[in-house]
Amino acid sequence: MEWIILALVGFIAAIVGSLLGLGGGILIVPALLLIDQLSVEMTPQLAVGTSLLIMIFTGLSSTIAYKAQGKVDIRSGLLFFIGSGPGAIAGVLINRRLDIDGFFLAFGIFIIALSIILTFKDKVKPLPIRQERIKLHVDDTGVTHQYGLTPSIAIVLSFFVGMLSGLFGVGGGSIMVPAMILLFAFPPHLAVGTSMFLVFLSALTSATSHVLLEQIVYLYALVLIPTAWIGAKVGAAINRRMNSVLLVRIFQLFLLIIGLRMIANGF
């Protein structure tokens, strides 16, 4: 039964993760910690390490799908990775000091904070961008959007995003997507696609660290990877059919539910 549950978790997590730009770890980590039938005694470190290994394949699968739709800004993703790569390693080192109750509590507070921030999305003005750094993106409805990055701010921000990725095993998209939308005026669909590219790069870095620390359950990963790969493709296909407002609202509600669940488990 545990193998069927794991397969379903990988599939559903990848759909949600790819749809919203999260990576899927936001579901895989708590699932690994909460499923009582697992034959391996699961710690936060093992759950995060295993999740990050899955995120490599979820991120790659989603990036390929979103790139085909023209919804990945490769240059911006690489710029973000300059900060998120070192940050991911820092997060892995911090993760080693967490106990399970503290992990749940910190994870929950972090997720709810993101949900609240998105409530005020329309009232937040993006950071000013120099004229030569402004980029254009034409969405599926034919509307042209302006967005852009300030490199220094993007790198510092992505360092903390990478640190959270290594710490919580969530791929970093749960904070990067709101940041792209709120701070840099990314259209939501482009933010999700670019986030999945960053999820792939950051997970590759973080998972390597966990491999060296022997904090991955490879047997579970073998079950999760195939279904996660398929689920990521499905999530990207669903994303294409959704309007931007609905996408942000679903993202916000999902963060709130998961955050409350994690806090409840932390007490």
UniProtKB/TrEMBL annotation:
Lipid bilayer topology: Multi-pass membrane protein
Transmembrane intervals: 6-34, 46-66, 78-95, 102-120, 149-170, 182-204, 216-234, 246-264
GO CC term (a single one): plasma membrane
InterPro entries: TM_pro_TauE-like (IPR002781), TSUP/Inactive_protease-like (IPR051598)
Pfam family, any one: TauE
Subcellular location: Cell membrane; Membrane
Keywords assigned by UniProt, alphabetized: Cell membrane, Membrane, Transmembrane, Transmembrane helix
Signal peptide region: none
Sequence similarity: Belongs to the 4-toluene sulfonate uptake permease (TSUP) (TC 2.A.102) family.
Protein name: Probable membrane transporter protein
